[in-house]
Design a protein that fits this description.
CATH topology of the largest domain: Cytochrome C3
CATH architecture of the largest domain: Alpha-Beta Complex
Order of helices and strands: HEEHHHHH
Structural class: mainly alpha
CATH class of the largest domain: Alpha Beta
Number of strands: 2
Oligomer: single chain
Distance between the termini: 80 Å
Number of domains: 2
Strand content: under 5%
Shape: globular
Amino acid sequence: MKVFRDLAFVAVLAASALLPGKAAAQQAAEPVGPDTVVFTPSRGKVTFTHGKHSKAYACGTCHHESRAEKPLTSARQKCGDCHTAEAVAPMKTTLRFAMHNTVTREGTCLTCHKKEADAGKSAPVACADCHIRDD
């Protein structure tokens, strides 16, 4: 009888250990943060579909972990909280260069978009694909 009770306890314990993992997996499929983020650089407004991206990619794909030079104040911050139009020490990277460096053709957004386009997926890689002028 004691063996049966111990086995039942182990079964319940194992099942409950799986539930948080399942809940976390379901939670990861839900969008996190705002649905859209609008940037207004001089080249034209960029509307970033944050909700769509957060369904397809883990947060850490774009949001890097805290850095000693400027520790995060929350788990996932806006890029512009640290990466500003002009880099302010201790930051070395502007918001523009965090997203893309047009000279080296790399950066968080552009590197990923090029990779997706090279894989045959539809991803904007030209400036005018993202930067939309109102005039």
